[in-house]
Amino acid sequence: MSFRTRILLGLLAVGIAPVVILGRMSYEANRQELIETVGSAQAHAAAELARYCESFVLSGVDHLQASTTYLPFARLSASEAATALRIPFRQLMSINALVLLSARGAAVAEPVFDAVPNDPSREGIGPRELDAFARNVPLATALTSDVAIGPPYLGAHSGVPRLAIAVRVEGGPAPILAAELSLKPLGARLHELAMADSAAFVVDARGQVIAHGGDDPALSPDERQLVETGVATLRPEVRSVRRGDGAAWLAAFAPVGTLGWGVVLATREAVALRAAHRSRAYTFFWAAAALVTAVVLGLVLARRVTVPVARLSDAARAMTEGRYDEEVEIDRRDELGALAASFNHMAQEVRRRDAEIRAWNEQLTQRVEQKATELRLANDQIARVRRLAALGSLGAGVAHEINNPR
After folding, report:
1. How many CB atoms are closer than 10 A to CB 220?
2. Rounded to whole angstroms, how far apart are CA atoms 108 and 82?
3. Bridging pattern class, strands 161-168 and 237-242
4. Which end of the chain has a smaller Cβ tally under 10 Å, C or N?
5. Tens digits of per-residue pLDDT, 378-402?
6. pTM of the model
7. How far apart are CA 262 and CA 377, in angstroms?
8. Is the CATH number 2.40.10.10 carried by domain 71-182?
9. Is 246 helix (H, G, I), strand (E, B) or coil?
10. Do 232 and 254 touch, CB atoms closer than 8 A?
11. Residue 215 and residue 21: Cα distance in Å, rounded?
12. Where are the domains of the chain?
């Protein structure tokens, strides 16, 4: 691994790691705090809406019970009872239909309803709606208790949720007064709460949507689990869920009293946790800024280190090749500058000593050559002396033979 790479990695570790770690910790802390704060507010709003739903249904039950006390159904004929039922029907705008039933579920008098209502707040009732109303009247429960509330169901044409209520009538041939209660006001209230990035709906114990604000919601597995848990425990629940669109939502569940229903308010996490997401965005920004700064600073620092080191390396290579005249040009007042000055001084010393050695070698060579010449001359002289001595000896011998012939 090169020195430049080590510098870059070191700066990245020092510059980016703290930003990322602190940003992550800040995001998690802010997110948890917002989930608790916003979730608590949502749970409170869901509880208020649950109380409104319960109050709305129980108010319809109370008005229906009150009508049985001031109307003498026991002393009225079938035609008179049908006429009398018009009084509470006109007073209670959330009632779609009223009918007196016998213990076997047969209508004692003509049911009261409007096929084409004059008031837009009231729903029209046709044959299919009457059949659905008759199937959902909780007759058996009403015969054993004073009040019975049936399960919610949807209108055949309008799709507006409604439910059947049955109250006991004391005396007379018709012991049960049944009414169909429209839950249309709940939908209007939910529409007020469901904004662009929010959702509000009421579900029953089976997880079926009774009323909703905005588009018809199809419960995702996370939402269904939230509803099942809330209905089972009858306590508020707040958690992060994935809705049908795959987006993360912060949802709060609140039970609707004794009806067995539940209210769910949900807000997109991108909106509910906007502050935490903004903190995460800031972390990404500063991490990117730290990355760019670390890279730029690392390149600058690496260049200021690697370039002088490369020059020193080139000068050292030249010295090994015998080129002692190359110097490192580094005009800096730091450690690298001192190293370059020391290297140049060392190069000068090596060059001076190399010159001295070369000069001494030349002198030594000259002296050796001179001594070799002197030695050669001495050898030549010795050879001449030897030749002269031989000639002298030869001459002496010849003279002796001449002087002393045999």
Report:
1. 17
2. 9
3. unpaired
4. C
5. 888 888 888 887 787 777 777 767 7
6. 0.64
7. 131
8. no
9. coil
10. no
11. 41
12. 71-182
